[in-house]
Specification:
Blueprint lengths: L1 E4 L12 E6 L28 H8 L10 E5 L3 H10 L5 E5 L5 H15 L4 E6 L7 H14 L6 E5 L10 E9 L2 E8 L4 H9 L3 E10 H7 L1
Parallel strand pairs: 2-3, 2-5, 3-4
Antiparallel strand pairs: 1-6, 5-9, 6-9, 7-8, 7-9
Amino acid sequence: MWVPACADLSERNLARPIIPLIMCGGAGTGLWPASRENRPKQFLLLLGRYSTFRETIRRVSNSALFGRPIIVTNSRYRFLVAEQLAAIEAEANILLEPVRRDSGPAIVAGAAFALAGDREAVVVELAADHVVADADAFAKVCSDARVAAADIRIVTFGVRPSRPSTEYGYICPRASIGPDIFAIEKFVEKPDAQTAERYVSAGYLWNSGNFTFRHRWRNGQL
């Protein structure tokens, strides 16, 4: 289950759509040999009918909640992105990285592009290679996060662990400040097995690495 966490909760909702900012430039070499430099995992049919990139686009296709996506990808993947968007009759703004960098510069570029279209933009940053089984629950979390981000607060998405895992970073939540919305005590890196068991017992969340922010906040912090 996805859980938004932030510093405080605003009662004020936003009528404007959330802008999906999708990170799609990774090489996916951790899944070699299936995933290769010229065709990384986010574009492969690994689970079900669609690649995880297409599934990500499909999850943000509700125009009542989401705006036109912004996709940041490496220039060598521009045709793969265009091809897979066309296959599901989806449209998006595509930003090309001339060279591959970490996610920070990609987020800055995407957020700046969002600002050019709407100075009050609320952005949800998503990875193109995540698997989300419950699209309706995901949409609800994004809607809740939009409210929580309204007063210029960053909202990160935690996942309630199904087991102790050493593969993910964790979020230590503080008190609830709304339905399924928590303040954050701290972030912790990937633990060893014994520490992971302790984190799960203590109610820690997996850190999905996805978050929502109002562009004015993000722009002022970078």
